[in-house]
Amino acid sequence: MIGKGKDRFDEDLGVVGKDGFSSGCFYFEVQVKEQTQWYLGVTRESVNRKDWISMSPLNGYWSVCLRYGVYQACDSSDYFFSLSVNPQRVGVFVDYEKGLVCFYDVEPMSHIYTYTDQSFNEKLYPFVCLGYWSNENSTPLIICDDYE
């Protein structure tokens, strides 16, 4: 769902899912196959969507990304990591009460990164982004609904 007015991103090519969660656990998958730049994860409802945004937990974003050929958790320390294969789908699992956001490579069912001991105090929404200002790769990011 693309927001209008104040809800719309003005410099990032990002969108926020239409369904938010404020308790319990939830899971979603994002198809990243063939895309060369992406950010995905969850964001809080009141997050800033204007100007340049540092997608870190301090700013209400819990995400991982592929940027300039490098995988990164967008944590306060910008944790870089390598993966043995490029994921085709990334799964995101959130436990709201435990303050946990986990990322998985769906095909081999392998762990990518986990944010722990986070404090959530408003609704969280799925979030995907193709980067800042432009992305010449026309392959879409798809929030999937065909998993079991």
What does this structure look like?
It is globular, with a radius of gyration of 14 Å. It has 148 residues and is mainly β. It has strands spanning 12-16, 25-31, 38-44, 61-67, 70-73, 79-81, 89-95, 100-105, 110-115, 124-132, 142-144. It has a single domain (5-144), classed as Jelly Rolls. It holds the Pfam family SPRY.
Sum up the structure in keywords.
single chain; mainly beta; 11 strands; 6-stranded antiparallel beta sheet; Jelly Rolls; 5-stranded antiparallel beta sheet; disordered N terminus; 148 residues
Number of helices, where a helix is a run of at least 4 consecutive DSSP H or I residues: 0
Radius of gyration: 14 Å
Beginning-to-end CA distance, first to last residue = 23 Å
Give the integer mean of the pLDDT values: 82
Write the CATH homologous superfamily. SPRY domain
Low-confidence stretches: 1-6
Q: Return the CATH class.
A: Mainly Beta
What is the SS-derived class? Answer: mainly beta
Q: In CATH terms, what is the architecture?
A: Sandwich
The count of β-strands is 11
The major pleated sheet works out as: 6 strands, antiparallel
> In CATH terms, what is the fold-level topology?
Jelly Rolls
The SSE string, one letter per element, is EEEEEEEEEEE
Approximately how much helix is present in the residues?
A: under 10%
Question: How would the global form be characterised?
Answer: globular
Provide the β-strand percentage band: 35-45%
Total count of domains: 1
